Amino acid sequence: MRRRANWLKAYRLVWSGLCGLVGVLGVVAGLFFVPTDLVFPLFFVASLIGSAVAANAWSKTADASVPARAWKAAVVAGTVIAAVVACAGYVVLLGPAGPSLVVILGVTSPPAMRWFGRRLGHVPGRLFNGALTTAELCTRWQDSYDALRAATTAAARLRIVEARQHYLDELERRDPRGLNAWLGKNASAAGDPSRFLAGDDGRDSR
């Protein structure tokens, strides 16, 4: 089980590194090769898209503190703006085939893999609770809510509900006081309990 978790972690690291490299090269190309008269419209459109996605991210983190929500929204907005600029840079360098690089990275991304799993009724990590950190378990709990909403069959929904129960059982085993504190704060089915739980290094994250 731990081997599988390590493989998934390595996959995320490799994908993140490749994505970062492609992103940086694309942003540089966008800044230096996009025609000057298109730079302002490009950033304007990118800012609009980034703001819309950031607003959506803000609305989905209602359980977090305001600074944490603001930081996440800012990171999301910056990432989206950089992605739009990178797409423009690759279009200038490679023509219409340029955005295909971004599409490939998107399709192979960990979130996309989780989405594909949701459609099939599988929740990543459901059988590997012991190999996950507390933060990763909280992420799995939140992802499983979206998976439950996206599931299309009764069997898939049942598997996801069972996985969610496994996550709660494991979190309770690790920090019963913290989990009960979260549940006592009108916890939502899609909420993030991590700020109530002790971290894996033994320090309380609240």
Quickly list its features.
mainly alpha; 8 helices; 73% helix; 206 residues; disordered C terminus; single chain
Describe the structure.
The protein is mainly alpha-helical and 206 residues long. The protein is 73% helix and 0% strand. The protein has 8 helices and no strands. The protein has helices at residues 2-33, 36-59, 66-94, 99-107, 110-119, 134-150, 154-174, 176-183. Mean pLDDT is 79; it is low at 124-129 and 201-206.
Furnish the topology, listing elements before pairings.
Layout: H1 2-33, H2 36-59, H3 66-94, H4 99-107, H5 110-119, H6 134-150, H7 154-174, H8 176-183
Helix pairs in contact: 1-3, 2-3, 5-6, 6-7, 7-8
Number of helical segments?
A: 8
Could you say which structural class the secondary elements and strand pairing correspond to?
mainly alpha
Backbone shape: elongated
Largest sheet: none
Percentage of residues in DSSP E strands:
under 5%
CA radius of gyration is 20 Å
What is the N-to-C succession of helices and strands? HHHHHHHH
Helix content class: over 70%
Straight-line distance between termini:
29 Å
Q: How many strand segments? A: 0
- Low-confidence segments, given as residue ranges, are 124-129, 201-206
In short:
The chain is 73% helix and 0% strand. It has 206 residues and is mainly alpha-helical.
